[in-house]
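I had to read the description of the data format several times before I understood it. The format is easy to grasp once an entry is in front of the reader. For illustration, here is how one protein appears when written out as sequence plus structure tokens:
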Amino acid sequence: MLKAEERNIDCVESGEGPAVLFLPGSYSTTAAWRQVQRHLSPGYRLVTSSLSGYGGTIDTRTRQDFDIAHEVQVVQALARHIGQPVHLVGHSFGGTVALAAALSRSVDVASLSLFEANPLPLIRELDGGKLHDDALQMSQAFEAAVNSGEPDAPARVIDFWGGPGVFAAMPEAVKTYCRETAAVNVLDWRTDFAFEVNAQDCAALAMPVLLVRGGEANPAMVAITDTLQGSLPNARHFAVDGAGHFLITSHAARCAELLSAFLAEVI
């Protein structure tokens, strides 16, 4: 656990070498990356955290103040603790936070690896905004469901990204954690949609970038990844066959293979 700026931040470390900082997505803790890390090539200092409101990381956001700067501050604190340039890896909303940290220029990011990152504002103007608006309407319905006490409100989000029935098939302990942190996920959606990012911003990032999505990704995710691929000047893109949004657990070995090859190339 890292203590920074009067807040606790999850910080799990192992190994020695160039620093690789892992950010999980919504409803996730440091455990989300464990399987990928087990398959990863050795020789790295692996640092894993949780985003605001998950695991032991204190949430400083409110429904009145949900700027992504709160999440970037988590990455900044971890980078100061690490004390060297970081190879930043994020999944889902963690990928969005990783992108925001790189764009902030306040973290020394040596490379960026984004697994199903979801910065939804990138597709606001795409195809008349339909994919963006569909996601926004779903998030608003989800927030209303959380506010009304709907027990399985998280299924709306999990199944949106992962496909019908994904939430129902999750282990009961995972479903319970999703229910317990549903109000945090409401803030995640607000934070994501309020993130001021566009393709021109991404075009200014010169560091090497790895983009990975599931081969069976949600159409919004396909559009986001394609937009990132077309905007980032030093990006390589892969789709993992047979995988959906939760590829870092369902296809951990393949994700680790892609990440290992990328890190070997850029370090």
